[in-house]
Amino acid sequence: MSTSPARAATGRGTVPPPPSGRGTARRDRDRRAVVLPARPGAPRVQGPPPSVAVIGGGIAGLAAATALAERGVAVTLYEKESYLGGRAGGWPTELRDGTPVTMSRGFHAFFRQYYNLRALLRRTDPALERLTGLPDYPLLHACGLRDSFRHVPRTPPFSALGFVALSPSFRLRDLPAMNPGAALPLLDVRVPEVYDRLDATSAHDFLDTLRFPRSARHLAFEVFSRSFFADPRHLSAAEMALMFHIYFLGSSEGLLFDVPDAPYPTALWHPLATHLRGHGARVRTGTAVQHVAPTPDGGHTVATDHDELPYDAVVLALDTGGLRSLVQRSAQVGNTLWRERIARLRTAPPFLVTRLWLDRPVAPERPGFLGTSGFGSLDNVSVLERWEDEAARWSARTGGSVVELHAYAVPPDATREVEQKLLLDQLHRVYPETRTAAVLDARHVWRDDCPLFPVGGHTDRPTVRTPHPGLVVAGDLVRTNLPVALMERAATTGFLAANTLLERWGVRGHPLKTVPDRGRSPLLRALATASATRSRRPPRTPSSTADAL
After folding, report:
1. How many other CB atoms sit within 10 Å of the CB of residue 278?
2. 192-202, pLDDT tens digit by residue?
3. Which candidate, 528, 514, 526, places its Cα nearest to that of 485?
4. Topology classification of domain 36-134+151-345+456-537
5. Whole-structure pTM over 0.85, yes or no?
6. What stretches of 7-94 adopt beta strand conformation (E)?
């Protein structure tokens, strides 16, 4: 793995140089990754191209639009915001001193298991040169314990065993109290079976059954559950188990990840928008769709504040609230059962991103990214000049640091000014040298549009297909029988939605790739199967009327 070196100042007036050159994202290395071949068909649309409206310009919508446009479909992409990328997007703003900068909704890790997302990015960056690897994924607990994934083996099951052996969170005297039998479902995670087994249990309760040491529980498991922007008490254990499979026991790509070496629009989405236009697609940012209506010929009309246009098919690539709202306004879309399920979809609690432009640098040993636990609402700290060229240029010019704080799940009734101050106070605990730094400028982003995967909610989530053959759904909220999550689920369902429509027109789809769709070890799979069989055994036949009652 080639990484940009950690760049940090050694004192006020001594500044880090901007990132030099392009980082290199490591190639996929898991030979057991599953390749799903494309359905056969014509290489491109033959004759007059069908028209498709893709509603939503996040990762799912961009994947669907790209997959369709590359096959000759006439695509129009609608996005209500002025920028593309959705929750991984960014927009311009100006600091008090007049410096133009880019703001975003917070840090995103581009894990090496995100095969389909990375395939999308390769459309404009074949070698992924605009991604750079961070050298570590450190975790810090408020009690002082630190964990790291830098030296953890990547090949399962040695990845999980290595983490336990290397982690100070696990002490030998704690191990006898653990319940290894309760962890057996993690040894052979399959989709959708994992939902049948664990969706009725919360992540919090499942962790209770494992009886992990408290500190290890925070660092080894809740880092996954909180990445869903949800309290573990309200998150399905199936989603957390799936994450454990994707990163630990199901994949040999490891827990290290890449990040864009420039702001998201520059590194990722502006080039992809150019790619789309090069394939004839129309990209309409700043355009909100008001309603969608089916037409007698099997197509749909899409109405905005400015026009109403007919299309042969529609892709709904919206966040939870956007999908729920659009379906509510589109009275003829779907059937009763489908509409009721969409109406029941829920969003996760609000999250807060605070970005600070400080007048002096953080200590040189601070990592580019740090996951935190036990510090109140603070979930991670990023020092952007360690990898992002825009922040590095500002740091080099001013001698300061650009620091980003993220609180994944804030109480819905929280007072914004109070929470923003608390987040700054928590930064001072994590990096004490920031207590003397003046905040030259700050931006705070509050959002509450991430999907919630509640206990027992799996069957309510939409699939790619809908009651209308010409209407499909994509996004990280979509239910699919593939081991994917978060940004990778968004990209994967975008390709799946496009492939579903291409199949209708006899056009070849796009191949997909995922982590292995079951546990890697035959022995561990056998143990998990035996555990599942025992848990599904029927109750004994009552021997008397009293027993039956």
Report:
1. 11
2. 999 999 999 99
3. 514
4. FAD/NAD(P)-binding domain (3.50.50)
5. yes
6. 34-36, 51-55, 74-79, 90-94
